[in-house]
Amino acid sequence: MVVRVAVAGASGYAGGEVLRLLLSHPEVEIGALTGHSNAGQLLGGLQPHLVPLAGRTLEATTPEALAGHDVVFLALPHGQSAAVAAQLGDDVLVVDMGADHRLKDSADWDRFYGAPHAGTWPYGLPELPGHRAALAGTRRIAVPGCFPTAVSLALYPAYQARLAEPEAVIVAATGTSGAGKALKPHLLGSEVMGTVTPYGVGGVHRHTPEMVQNLSPFAGERVCVSFTANLVPMPRGILATCSAKALPGTTAESLRAAYEKAYADEPFVRLLPEGVWPTTKSVYGSNAVHLQVAHDASAGRIIAISAIDNLTKGTAGGAVQSMNIALGLPETLGLSTIGVAP
Ligand SMILES: NC(=O)C1=CN([C@@H]2O[C@H](COP(=O)(O)OP(=O)(O)OC[C@H]3O[C@@H](n4cnc5c(N)ncnc54)[C@H](OP(=O)(O)O)[C@@H]3O)[C@@H](O)[C@H]2O)C=CC1
Ligand SMILES: CC(=O)N[C@@H](CCC(=O)OP(=O)(O)O)C(=O)O
């Protein structure tokens, strides 16, 4: 099987990461590569790490450039995907790495994003029960946000096993690539180096409704999420520390058993040995999710900590994993759980 793939937004971080992964995918042939302000430029000058594609020229993101492919990845700014997707055939697998098709509730979309809601597509987080089946054979995939991936996988087993109350306090650290490549003053080296900066505090981070949407079905009621992000001076990685009030009867043993059961057969989620804590370094460039749980008996809370690479499992790796499922390929094809250390 040869799958011909186009990447729109190939000059950006998410587009570059999906190309890095697709270059090692045995069934994929890389077709059109498109950009916006960089259309006409050689990819080698923009993504020098993608050596085999260095001589390729970026085209403008048009329906003509994207036509004739089996799969089109959209790595575009929020709000740009729907118009492009509407011009692609129903038989083409469109994988949207932006937020446009993730949320079910249009009111949430309006509140956190502001533009007209484009609709809802099957959600590319196969580890959440029910989602893998919905991805099989689909021709439209909404890739989750990076924080919702880390947080949903850290917490859903506790809700599914009814070990936690339907509230969660989450504090996550993220690398700077999560903000994209476009110039932003708060991301200048002199602003981010040597400091940790909170942002999106007080219920305003746009990933909050996505976390609520993912977790609530497992709690059997709406989960109230308080989320705080922290920008840290590293290029990649997310470490999410998630805490919820334990329900009566929860023990360290019941908590661990719930997570062991949830992830026994998941190729990318690794519940670390007891006493070993996730680090962003261990998942750098890999599609793995590292996870650990603890029961804080004195505070009556459960703590779940996850680490992912925001660009890999947090976007491009999750996108390729979901593509594999949609096309009926082995789910792990082209993806690795091996990190880079030290
Ligand atoms: N970075 C991350 O960790 C994650 C990113 N995502 C999502 O992936 C998408 C891309 O993000 P990211 O790669 O970080 O962003 P970047 O800013 O790095 O890249 C954006 C890409 O979109 C292109 N582009 C910019 N404006 C337009 C436009 N008006 N029309 C068409 N193309 C345009 C750019 O082209 P050019 O450079 O040629 O102008 C570039 O290729 C976003 O929706 C983001 O939310 C999702 C999860 C994680
Ligand atoms: C450092 C930083 O700014 N990170 C981004 C997350 C990027 C991401 O995963 O998500 P989207 O696809 O939803 O943009 C943020 O906090 O908004």
- The CATH class label of the largest domain is Alpha Beta
- Give the strand content: 15-25%
**Spatial order of the strands forming the largest sheet:** 8-9-7-10-13-12-11
CATH superfamily membership of the largest domain, which one? Dihydrodipicolinate Reductase, domain 2
Number of β-strand runs: 13
Taken together, the total number of domains comes to 2
Look at the helices and sheets and give the structural class: alpha/beta
What's the order of the H and E elements?
A: EHEHEHEHEHHEHEHEHEEHEEEH
| CATH fold node name of the largest domain | Dihydrodipicolinate Reductase, domain 2
Helix amount, in percent? 25-40%
The largest sheet, given as strand count, sense and whether it forms a barrel, is: 7 strands, mixed
Query: Helical element count?
Result: 11
Residue windows where pLDDT falls under 50 for at least 5 positions = none
Shape descriptor reads globular
Q: Could you give the distance between the termini?
A: 37 Å
Q: How would you state the average pLDDT, rounded?
A: 97
Radius of gyration: 19 Å
**CATH architecture verdict of the largest domain:** 2-Layer Sandwich
Bound molecule kinds, no repeats = NADPH dihydro-nicotinamide-adenine-dinucleotide phosphate, N-acetyl-L-glutamyl 5-phosphate
Subcellular location: Cytoplasm
Enzyme class: oxidoreductase
Organism: Streptomyces lavendulae subsp. lavendulae
Family: Belongs to the NAGSA dehydrogenase family. Type 1 subfamily.
